Amino acid sequence: MEIADSPMGERQRRYRAMYRERVTGWYNGYLHAILLFAPGTLAISIYIASLANIKWWEWLVVPVVFLGAQWVEYFIHRFLAHRPSRSPFWRLIYVRHTLMHHQFFTAEESRFATHLDWRVTLFPPFTLVVFTLLLVPPSLLAGWFLSSNVGWLIIATGTGNYLFYELLHFCCHIDDNLFVRHCPIVNTARRHHTAHHEMSIMMERNMGIVFPFWDWAYGTSDLDRGLLGHLFNGYSTRYIKKDMRRTVRTPYLLTRHRPHSEPQHAQSDTKA
Amino acid sequence: MPITKRILFTILVILAGAIGYLIELRSGSENLAIAMVILTVMMIVSLWALSPVNRDEDK
């Protein structure tokens, strides 16, 4: 069940075993992926097929919505997924991300062992439904007030951004192969995200989960290079910043008795 | 996701699907209207699928 030649520590090994015990026996990663990507792909196909006589300026919606969606992803990851909130909903995101995902995958071992581990990375299938419902009102308004093409492009780009995230995040946690090593954007995402799983920088670096645009814009990247260099960095470690504040921080501890306590900055607890 | 929220989201998906269906019909795309029905069904399946997995996480 576990990867045989893994350099992971005993703490991570125990956590992964415990996590797997909690997943019900009939879970199937392939079914999970189909339930996400099949309706997502069909949805985008319908939205694109609905475009007609598109004007040049209507295409501008695509980069605007894509970067806007990436910003939302960056913001949620940086300020909510890594910090416990008072809101039960956002605290659940924190628990699933910082306390579960980051314990299951570390910089030492960030690969799935089998498809049964995909549960740790793929969002529940209902997430696509929720995102689609969130995209419907702005798409309808844009379709009504601007043009039907703009409406279809908004919902298509928003849905595409979600599938882009799922696919790249998935690629970040599979075993190395020719495709993920050499495909532009994918190889960049893998290095960028694996570096983020390094516990000493995970609270403040590479917060754009799989796309480094907003890390470049806000200066939260671990690389010291321009935008194009960030997007097409690949596996290179040549430009990694040497003056990072590599503060060792453990995930904030959430307990029944101290649900909103101050962050725990333990200096010795990160390397098990 | 609690069952009450799933029911609420199912209703919203059906409403959104109906709007999409009507838009496609008004634009003369009958094939896309049928595809919209299939998409709505797939969304409802996704909404209800895999619910018992790791339920204790949600507590």
What does this structure look like?
Chain A has helices at 10-22, 29-49, 61-81, 88-104, 126-145, 148-172, 178-182, 186-196, 213-218, 227-231. In chain A, 53% of the residues lie in helices and 0% in strands. Chain A has 10 helices and no strands. Chain B has 2 helices and no strands. Chain B has helices spanning 3-26, 30-48. Chain B has a domain at 16-46. The interface between A and B is medium-sized, with 34 and 30 residues.
SSE topology:
The complex is a heterodimer of chains A (272) and B (59).
Chain A: H1 10-22, H2 29-49, H3 61-81, H4 88-104, H5 126-145, H6 148-172, H7 178-182, H8 186-196, H9 213-218, H10 227-231
Chain B: H1 3-26, H2 30-48
Helix pairs in contact in B: 1-2
How would the global form of chain A be characterised? globular
Most extensive chain contact?
A-B, 34 and 30 residues
Low-confidence stretches of chain B: none
Mean pLDDT across the residues of chain B is 84
The structure class of chain B reads mainly alpha
Total number of helices of chain B: 2
Sheet-strand content of chain A, in percent, reads: under 5%
Q: Radius of gyration of chain B over alpha carbons?
A: 15 Å
Strand content of chain B: under 5%
Mean pLDDT level of chain A: 86
The strand count of chain B comes to 0
Tell me about the biggest sheet of chain B? none
What share of the residues of chain B lie within helices? over 70%
Separation of the first and last Cα atoms of chain B: 11 Å
Short account of what is shown:
The complex is a heterodimer of chains A (272) and B (59). In chain A, 53% of the residues lie in helices and 0% in strands.
Keywords, separated by commas or semicolons:
heterodimer; A: 272 residues; mainly alpha; globular; disordered C terminus; B: 59 residues; 2 helices; 73% helix; 0% strand; elongated
